[in-house]
Amino acid sequence: LLFLVSNLCGKCRPRDTGLLQPSLNFLYWSLHQTTPCSQQRAVAVLLSNVSLLELLQKVLECTWLRSPPSGPAYLSSEDALLCSGWLLVASLLLYQHRYNTEVHQTLSLDLTGVLNAVIFRNKKPILLLVSIMQFLRVALQQNFSSSLLVMVGQNTEQGATQPQLSSLQDAALHPLATQQVFSLVVSLQNLLVHKDLLLSQAVVACLETLVEYLYVKNQDVALHVASQPWHRFLLFTLLNGGQKSLLQPEVLRLMTLFVRYQSSNIISQKEISQILQEAAEANLAELPEATSCALRLFLCQV
User: Fold this and answer.
1) What is the pTM of this model?
2) Within 13 Å of residue 121, how many CA atoms lie on the same side as its CB?
3) Exposure winner among 41, 67, 139, 302, fewest CB in 10 A?
4) In the chain, what's the furthest Cα-to-Cα distance?
5) Span 113-160, pLDDT tens digits
6) Contacts with 302 (C-beta within 8 Å, 6 or more apart), sequence order
7) All residues at 6 or more sequence positions from 45 whose CB lies less than 8 Å from its CB, including other chains
8) How many helices and strands (H and E) does the chain possess?
9) 30 and 72 in contact (C-beta within 8 Å)?
10) Among candidate residues 92, 106, 76, the one with its CA nearest the CA of residue 24
11) Contact (CB, 8 A) for 204 and 248
């Protein structure tokens, strides 16, 4: 069935949303809701289908052509297809790396376009932003060096006209540019203020991976990003004043990030003590799974 559906997708056009959207969702869940042995075979089937990969490339490129709605952001059928496309490609990228699966067709994506889709949101629906950030997170984890993915549009000509210091930083952060990194961080900070649970989880995960990527490339830039004073304001904004407000998963994960990179101007010993006190008073058996996992990571980091 996976083989037949993937072949069917390869014969479609990006505008065939009624057929493509559920088909891509089927492929996505076929990768995730199966045993590791079957998962490896499923990845091999999908990555051997050149027509499917060519279609996915065309679908993702529609992200740059999307015109923002005049009213509040909503999820149209075209946006839903984009979400399915980004999530499927992120999964293929992840599992191709895990199983070292042979690739028969590479995907070429504009790195500047991917970053700008998050930086300049243009009333994109939350689910579309989350899907793009999931892809960006996987690409960062793989250092933009997957055999399935080729990132283009890296502004090499622009870098030649920049000051020497900026050019050195850009070389260290390649294929990202320093200005792109700072713009992305500001955008992620702004997205956190929305207090949407799904969006907050995706933003924090993307921020974690970005700082890890930066730390490997250039520790000074990573520590500078992790110690931005605006992060402290964000923490106060995220706290809702409830009795257990510090035990929110996204707050705990942010705190863990700041402890890991020793951002003492963001999180002090006082906040760490408050979290420990609230954890000691909480009924751990009643905590949601996301909170328990975030709390465990925080305690291990401390």
Assistant:
1) 0.91
2) 18
3) 67
4) 60
5) 999 999 998 788 999 999 999 999 999 999 999 999 998 875 444 444
6) 259, 272, 276
7) 2, 3, 6
8) 16, 2
9) no
10) 92
11) no
